[in-house]
Design brief:
ParB_N; two-stranded antiparallel ribbon; 3 domains; 47% helix; 293 residues; 6-stranded mixed sheet; DNA binding; 13 helices; HTH_ParB/Spo0J
């Protein structure tokens, strides 16, 4: 569905799922017609193979299951035909999982026509619209839509109802070091902190500022001030070192972990050399001196 009608762009999943076919209620056991609603046995529904979401809050699922036991399914799931008596989920995996927890045997479902690309896009857009989605999950979904649905950033913005600069800021998060991405995902730092970090050139500087955020609990405003300070004191770029023996690389990695920055270990054939520890600011120098004792 990467070639969707323009009037559906920016309106979210509900607009993408609408078509001109008549919606009919069909009882279980009858042939499914595209655009219809019918009761589908749970054991005939396969999960969406393009589902980008892997983590589901079990407490929230159980609460939804309890609600379903009392009130039933308010909003049908959406499926496509996969065989004569089998269906593939397009959207509504939380409802599907909770229905199974609630002990239901069948569930109301919209039957829609959708190819693999449409399945992927619909799953990604539904995932993006979750209220509790973290910034990294949004960024990954945006990147998948660009890569796998062959969308440009402005087209992606139309799909999800965001302007291009917002889309760009999310995508730039994926260029941050993995440890910072994990901190954003786990909500250890906010999107405001992340926006400040992505303006810094160089992973070493980004990591140093990130550590200051964690260690000192810096506000977004303080981080922005720190970023300007770091930008005013650029590190001298070293020439790319020649490949070292494994034992030297292991020692350098251990020192980098200890000092929280990229440590260079330069040893010549005679065994002589030097250890280089980059310093980003006076505060950083004091931190390293404290570690050295």
């Amino acid at each position: 569905m990467c070639a969707l009608k323009r009037n559906a762009l920016g309106k979210g999943l509900s607009a993408l799922l609408q078509d001109n076919e008549t919606t009919n209620n069909i009882p279980a056991g009858e042939p499914a017609i595209s655009g219809s609603i019918l009761m589908v046995p749970l054991d005939e529904i396969e999960t969406n193979p393009f589902q980008p979401r892997s983590d589901f809050d079990q407490t929230a699922l159980q609460e939804l299951a309890d609600s379903i036991r009392l009130q039933g399914i308010i909003q049908p799931v959406t499926v496509r035909r996969a065989g004569e008596r089998s269906y593939q989920l397009i959207s509504g995996e939380r409802r599907l999982r909770a229905s199974r927890l609630a002990g239901l045997k069948e569930i109301p479902a919209y039957v829609r026509s959708a190819d693999d690309v449409a399945m992927l896009e619909l799953a990604l857009i539904e995932n993006i619209q979750r209220e509790n989605l973290n910034a990294i999950e949004i960024a990954i979904s945006y990147q998948r839509m660009i890569d796998e649905c062959h969308l440009k950033q402005d087209e992606l913005g139309d799909r999800v109802g965001k302007n291009r600069s917002t889309v760009t800021n999310y995508l730039r998060l994926l260029k941050l070091p993995p440890v910072i991405q994990a901190a954003i995902r786990d909500e250890q730092i906010s999107m405001g902190h992340a926006r400040a970090l992505i303006t810094i050139n160089g992973a070493d500087k980004q990591l140093w500022v990130y550590r200051q955020i964690i260690e000192k609990g810096l506000s977004v405003r303080k981080v922005e001030e720190l970023v300007r300070e770091v930008a005013a004191e650029p590190l001298k770029k070293d020439k790319k070192p020649e490949q070292q023996p494994y034992e030297y690389r292991k020692i350098a990695d251990g020192l980098s972990s200890r000092f929280g920055t990229k440590v260079q270990l330069r040893i010549d054939d005679s065994g002589k050399g030097k250890i280089e520890i980059p310093v980003l600011s006076r505060n950083d120098l004091n931190r390293i001196l404290d570690i050295l004792g």
